[in-house]
Design goal:
The complex is a heterodimer of chains A (160) and B (798).
Chain A (H helix, E strand, L loop, with lengths): L4 E8 L2 E8 L4 H8 L18 E4 L2 E4 L12 E3 L1 H7 L3 H10 L8 H12 L7 H7 L11 H16 L1
Parallel strand pairs in A: 1-5
Antiparallel strand pairs in A: 1-2, 3-4, 3-5
Helix pairs in contact in A: 3-6
Chain B lengths: L30 H4 L15 E7 L5 E7 L1 H4 L4 E6 H4 L28 E2 L5 E7 L2 H8 L3 E6 L25 E9 L2 H7 L2 E13 L7 E7 L4 E6 L4 H12 L6 E4 L15 H13 L3 E4 L2 H7 L2 E13 L5 E11 L12 H9 L9 E8 L14 H19 L3 H8 L8 E2 L5 E2 L4 H12 L1 H13 L3 E13 L17 E7 L5 E5 L8 H13 L6 E4 L17 H28 L6 E4 L2 E4 L5 E4 H10 L13 E6 L7 E13 L6 E11 L6 H21 L29 E5 L17 H18 L9 E2 L3 H7 L4
Parallel strand pairs in B: 1-12, 8-29, 10-11, 14-15, 20-21, 27-28
Antiparallel strand pairs in B: 1-5, 2-4, 2-6, 3-5, 7-15, 8-13, 9-10, 9-12, 13-14, 16-17, 18-26, 19-20, 19-25, 22-23, 23-24, 26-27
Helix pairs in contact in B: 9-10, 10-18, 12-13, 14-15, 15-16, 17-18
The chains are: A alpha+beta (160), B alpha+beta (798).
Chain lengths: 160, 798
């Protein structure tokens, strides 16, 4: 039942946040409900679909399998943060041009996961891109356009 | 943003300067979704909003003897605990029947079960609390005493005398039955040299929209108005249903639909828990939100398919098909889903089977039965994947039996491209299809001869590759023949209102909705082209029953073909009206003027005459300078519904290239092709992506997706880990090609493209698997999903 509350201090998209959360509150619920950062989505709440993907201390995690309380002292980045910083502007542009999203519900998680792969540098093969994105479900696109967009950005970054 | 000119328009009626028709225009306003700044219903919060959770029946069939709410009422944050009987005082039940499906019957369904729960997952009590977590906590404290009743789970025995009748007042478990006979099937079979006969089994599956169903309902007693934020494909239909079952007038109900996280036909139905949420806000006089969690989605989102089809085909040794026969059986859960009914999929299978082919001799029997499982209803490509897999499975089995190439047997039997208008074996009418052109194109795209050689070469190395085809037809642009004639208040017409704003930009309000297909982009392209402005000067407004023309929404591939035509006509009308104002200002004849690139120009020379901003300024702020008696009208509305044809049938063909590992039974998809003909292609990229997404949903059905029930009606794999959907790594690249046969029913000539991918993929993959396994002497697989276990069974290895 509702239960223990815990004070946490988290840096979210560069802003210092001090909140009191229930011990059971997941990171994605905390972001969405307490901070109003609704760009991270809830798809399955059991760690399979990847819609809730966010970064904690630079590493991509499932927002539904991470407790907010675990993030005390951590640096959390969401789609809103990486959009404002311009870090993935080229990737977002490529998704838009290539229509690599339809309903857009998987897109924030898909972008963060793709960025994780692209950060390694080089131009991964289509198979490697597909493999890396396999923890993020998309029901609309059939994935082909997403792979195209990620591949195009890898090439462009390689040239830059 | 760059616009890719990859498919020039072929139509003269659409020849406008700077036309966007046929161009891959990126979708407007899309950056909000790439930046996580969309507004899905899941994101909506309102002041004083309560969150609903539902206590759901753990039994497939049970009498509800008592609901104890004392402990739950005391739980933290609880606002109300509402059992079904209490909610029934606010909301009337419904019955999912349509008069044109002769004899279809169903029982009254309540928002929350009142006396009996009829499937595992049916809501028996609502809990509203300040947070969803608190509502779920309290739901666990609701004590429900059940008396378990026998569950009817096997469709094959549902009509047996020994099987209990689920709804006694209906007399039996038969929901709907259709028999159809055309031509001379008996004679056709008698003249055949060979008859192939088999049974196809299609597993139940579901849509798994990434955003689960979501609704926020807000009854304002002061205004006596209900506002519903709803992830739906059909806002006006839902407005009608909410009003009807709450005893309100439609004008008291506003349905607002912004971003929708996937729909695919899942979000076009009446869901009991959503109706309950709407009733709860009326009861509690405060906003109530319900978002299904994933486990609830699996037991309450409509399921689909689950058909067993016994099928026969007669063929002569020269490849001529002489007759078809099918017997379809499907179990649809305990209620026919409201308001579209659960009889449509079986009906479509009867309509579509054999549809691409010239053979007129056809007999079909379809039965739809009740059972104690989650309800089934229309999901993307309703009936098409089944009809196509049955038809194309039979055709390729026949080809093997008579030793004919699968391409050749199709060339021999597909309706000739010069034979239109034509009629299918079920009586469906085709305006203009292009089966042979599509077949020729796909054979060239895939380099068929090279793949056959490759297959042959690798077989010698004991690598088993397969090629499978599936020609298909697709129902799009439905007229009133689909639902309206059956008494459902589901609009087949759609409207668009276009107005010039005070700076000369164009605002278009449309009755069709956006769930990611790109309906907004298509509307913007059409309006910009017809009116004559750069596309950046067009803003599209959708999804609000207070602010859009009355329309059907987006389903059955109708948005571009029907909504687009309304937008085209409205923008043309506005152009005339604006030119009347400009002519008045310029003292020129309106017919001598045109609007190009956002400027009023002389039609003959293209010389700029006056900017739209100036026309708007004069009309809105200095109308005193216009001639006496002249009134500027800067808003136009047009509606459109197809009239010449009940449906705009489209066609196409798919091909699958895959490898089967006979040791593990694993199937690896190597490549997939689709050539389709949706008439005028307004935006090639969006059409291609509809095809690709649809293909992958079809592949999901063919290989992975299955709602597995046990004999007691318990769903065994109702979670995202155990219910498999296609992942990126398992999917092939998909090449898409087009043939363009516009419909003459509209000026745009556009037909739909949303179902095509899903329609043809399962049949082509099934045929490819069987092609791969043939040298190993496997029994042909006619069951989906084709899991490794199914493959190994076919090989006799397990």
């Amino acid at each position: 039942m509702s239960a223990r509350r815990i004070d946490i201090a988290v840096t979210v998209n560069g802003e210092a946040v001090h909140e009191t959360v229930e011990a059971r509150t997941t990171l994605v619920d905390f972001l969405r409900e307490d901070l109003g950062l609704t760009g991270s989505h809830v798809g399955c709440e059991h760690g399979v679909c990847g819609a809730c993907t966010v970064r904690v201390d630079g590493v991509v995690v499932r927002g539904c399998l991470t407790l907010a309380a675990q993030c005390d002292g951590a640096r959390v980045e969401t789609i809103e943060g990486v959009s404002d910083s311009g870090e993935i502007a080229d990737l977002q542009d490529a998704f838009h041009k290539r229509n690599a999203l339809q309903c857009g519900y998987c897109t924030p998680g898909m972008l963060l996961t793709a960025q994780e792969l692209l950060k390694n540098g080089g131009t991964p093969s289509r198979a490697a891109i597909r493999q890396h994105l396999s923890g993020n479900y998309c029901r609309c696109t059939g994935y082909h356009a997403i792979v195209d967009a990620v591949e195009a950005v890898a090439r462009a970054r390689g040239k830059a | 943003m760059n616009i890719v000119d990859d498919l020039p328009p072929v139509l003269t009626a659409l020849d406008r300067p700077n036309s966007y028709i046929g161009r891959s225009v990126p979708r407007p306003h899309l950056a909000r979704l790439t930046q996580g700044r969309g507004q899905y219903v899941s994101d909506v919060t309102l002041p004083r909003m309560g969150h609903a959770a539902f206590v759901r029946s753990p039994h497939a069939h049970a009498r509800i003897r008592r609901i104890g709410t004392e402990a739950a009422k005391k739980a933290p944050g609880v606002i109300a605990i509402v059992p079904g009987a209490e909610l029934a005082e606010v909301m009337t039940p419904w019955v999912g029947v349509l008069t044109h499906l002769k004899g279809i019957k169903s029982a009254p369904q309540y928002a929350i079960a009142v006396e009996r729960a009829c499937w595992q997952g049916e809501a028996v009590c609502a809990v509203v609390a300040k947070t969803r977590a608190q509502a779920e906590d309290a739901a666990e404290l609701v004590e429900v005493e059940y008396e378990e009743l026998p569950a009817v789970t096997d469709a094959e025995t549902a009509l047996d005398a020994a099987t209990p009748v689920i709804h006694l007042e209906l007399g039996d478990n038969l929901t709907f039955e259709r028999k159809h006979e055309a031509g001379e099937p008996d004679k056709g079979f008698a003249t055949a040299d060979t008859v192939v006969e088999t049974t196809f089994v299609f597993g139940r599956h579901t849509g798994v929209t990434n955003e689960p169903r979501a609704i926020v309902a807000d009854w304002n007693p002061g205004e006596q108005r209900l506002t519903v934020y709803h992830g739906t494909q059909a806002p006006h239909m839902m407005q009608n249903l909410f009003a009807k079952h709450l005893g309100l007038d439609e004008q008291q109900v506003r349905v607002v639909t912004k971003d929708v996280g996937g729909s695919f036909g899942i979000k076009v139905h009446t869901y009991a828990d959503e109706m309950a949420t709407v009733a709860l806000t009326k009861l509690l006089r405060r906003p109530v939100k319900f978002v299904a969690d994933r486990l609830e989605s699996f037991v309450t989102d409509i399921h689909a398919r689950d058909h067993r089809v016994k099928a026969r085909l007669g063929v002569k040794n020269d490849g001529t098909i002489t007759a078809w026969e099918i017997d379809d059986l499907t179990g649809i859960g305990p209620y026919s889903v409201y308001p579209r009914t659960s009889g449509i999929e079986a009906n479509q299978i009867v309509n579509l089977t054999g549809g691409p082919y010239a053979c007129p001799n056809y007999r079909a029997h379809a039965r739809v039965v009740f059972q104690n499982k989650n309800v089934m209803c229309q999901y993307r490509a309703v009936g098409h994947p089944i009809a196509t897999a049955v038809t194309e499975g039979l055709v390729e089995l026949a080809a093997v039996k008579i030793g004919m190439d699968p391409v050749d047997i199709r060339r021999k039997n597909l309706i000739p491209d010069n034979a239109y208008p034509a009629t299918g074996p079920s009586g469906i009418k085709f305006e203009l299809l292009s089966h042979h052109a599509a077949l020729d194109k796909i054979v060239a795209m895939m380099d068929y001869a090279r793949l056959r050689a490759e297959q042959e070469r690798l077989r010698r190395e004991r690598v088993y590759l397969g090629i499978g085809f599936a020609s298909f037809i697709e129902v799009t642009n439905p007229s009133a023949a689909f639902y309206g004639v059956g008494g459902a208040r589901i609009s087949s017409q759609d409207g668009a209102t276009v107005r010039l704003d005070a700076q000369g930009a164009v605002i278009c309000h449309t009755g069709v909705t956006e769930q990611g297909q790109g309906a907004e982009a298509v509307m913007a392209q059409v309006v910009a082209s017809a009116f004559g402005v750069p596309i950046e000067r067009v803003r599209i407004v959708t999804g609000d029953t207070d602010n859009t023309p009355y329309g059907g929404g987006t389903w059955a591939s109708r948005a571009a073909g029907i909504g687009g035509e309304a937008g085209w006509q409205a923008a043309k009308a506005l152009r005339s009206q604006v030119l009347a104002v400009a002519g008045s200002i310029l003292q020129a004849k309106p017919e001598s003027l045109d609007i190009r690139g956002g400027v009023v120009v002389d039609g003959a020379t293209g010389t700029e005459r006056i900017g739209l901003d100036e026309v708007a300024r004069v009309a809105y702020f200095r109308p005193d300078t216009l001639p006496p008696g002249f009134q500027a009208e800067l808003m136009a509305t047009r509606h459109y519904v197809p009239r010449a044809w009940p449906f705009a049938f489209t066609n196409g063909i798919q091909a699958s290239w895959l490898e089967v590992d006979p040791d593990s039974g694993f199937i690896t998809l190597l490549k997939h092709w689709c050539v389709e003909d949706c008439g005028t292609v307004i935006n090639p990229q969006l059409v291609d992506e509809q095809i690709r997404g649809g293909v992958v949903q079809g592949i999901g059905a063919a290989l992975f997706e299955h709602c597995r029930y046990d004999e007691r009606g318990q769903l065994l794999n109702g979670n995202m880990a155990d219910y498999l959907v296609p992942m990126a790594a398992e999917m092939p690249d998909i090449e898409v090609g087009h043939v363009v046969s516009p419909t003459a029913d509209s000026e745009l000539g556009a037909k739909g493209a949303g179902e095509a991918g899903t329609a043809g993929a399962p049949g082509s993959v099934m045929n490819a698997v069987n092609d791969a396994l043939r040298p190993l002497g496997a029994r042909p697989i006619t069951e989906m999903p084709m899991t490794p276990e199914v493959v190994l069974h076919a090989l006799g290895r397990v």
